[in-house]
Specification:
- It is built from 14 helices and 10 strands.
- Helix content is 38%, strand content 16%.
- The chain has 345 residues and is an alpha/beta fold.
- The longest helix has 15 residues.
- Strands 1, 2, 3, 4, 5, 6, 7, 8, 9 and 10 form a 10-stranded mixed beta sheet that branches.
């Protein structure tokens, strides 16, 4: 697990990288762009090196799992950060709500990224997608297609595992359900899924696969990319968990598969705005988009990029076309409903 304090902020990327202290990044310099991110450094290091080779712009990046948006807010006008790269539409929207972003006009970004995957006011842009899929036991589940609504069907009573529904991944799914069906029907859906749980929500998405292998449950919710990380990682136990499941890309009834995103914003007080824009535009080039597909088993936002063969084996992704901005607006309602039905209790 990465240390989450800035005293040990992790630097990665091009030749300018070195140990950090405090904020750790130069306030302004020619040929530099400063990145704050809560994404694992390994995902971006090769991309940022290539960006430096292509542009001559050095990249300084600081990693922390938590608290980046709040830190940028606290730094105010003295913040050295040019861009924030983060995961989950909730965290992206949090940056907007804190007033730390600025709109960006870029034909490169708007032409490469579908409209539902970027802010209508150009304050954030998605870089990659991850599908909220269903892990299903290879031995005990014969279903090849399941809708999100089906998870409330009594046929699954005692057969579903999931992490906390207050986790950002499940809050986003619940918010999408509100956009699709309204609060009343979403509350009934939550009650139905809760009634079908095999155990109290706990752990993470990988633990869902672990529990399926152990026979605790037959199906559960999990992001697609975890299957790639388990399958091709170094942990032999996790490989067994992945081998025990099939991945089903569920859809909403009369809709598509719910996706969440990683995204990028330009910060309000960016000291290197031109370089920041160049980096943002570089992240949607074919070269950079291939990294998301090959290194982290995600779906590129740019059309025409080949996805990883393992991810391709899950079947074609037909992503739900609802605006993620609408999903973000309903996150508070989703969280309140999860508490109201006592889902995690």
């Amino acid at each position: 697990m990465m240390n989450t304090t800035f005293a040990r902020g992790l630097l990665f990327g091009a030749a300018a990288l070195g140990a950090l202290a405090g904020s750790g990044l130069p306030a302004s310099a020619q040929g530099v762009v400063n990145v704050y991110t809560n994404r694992e450094p390994g995902l971006y290091s090769a991309t940022l090196d290539e960006f430096t080779k292509a542009t001559g712009i050095k990249v300084n990046a600081i990693f922390s799992e938590q608290g980046l948006a709040e830190r940028i807010k606290a730094e105010g006008e003295s913040s050295p950060a040019d861009v924030l790269i983060t995961v989950d539409i909730g965290k992206i929207q949090e940056a907007v709500d804190l007033g730390i972003t600025q709109p960006v006009k870029s034909e490169v970004l708007t032409s490469a990224i579908p409209s539902q995957l970027r802010d209508p006011d150009n304050r954030w842009f998605a870089l990659s997608m991850r599908a909220r899929s269903i892990y299903a036991s290879k031995d005990r589940v014969k279903d090849k297609a399941i809708t999100y609504e089906d998870l409330a069907d009594p046929k699954w009573k005692g057969k579903i595992c999931t992490r906390s529904f207050q986790h950002q991944y499940n809050i986003a799914l619940t918010a999408a359900m509100i956009v699709k069906h309204g609060e009343a029907k979403t509350e009934e859906w939550l009650k139905g899924v809760k009634a079908n749980l095999a155990k109290k929500p706990s752990g993470g998405d990988r633990d869902v696969a672990k529990d399926i292998l152990a026979g605790v449950c037959d199906i559960g919710l999990g992001n697609t990319y975890y299957v790639g990380l388990m399958t091709n990682g170094t942990n032999p136990d996790q490989k067994k968990w992945a081998e025990a499941i099939n991945v089903i890309l569920p859809t909403f009834k009369d809709g598509g598969t719910h996706v969440n995103v990683s995204g990028i914003v330009m910060l309000k007080n960016a000291p290197n705005r031109e370089n920041a824009l160049k980096l943002m535009e570089y992240m949607v080039t074919p070269v950079a988009q291939h990294v998301f597909a090959d290194v982290n088993y995600e779906y590129p936002v740019r059309a025409g990029i080949e996805i990883n063969p393992l991810v391709k084996s899950f079947g074609p992704l037909r992503a739900e076309e609802m605006s993620l901005s609408d999903v973000a607006k309903n996150r508070a309602k989703a969280s309140a409903l999860v508490d109201k039905v006592g889902f995690d209790r």
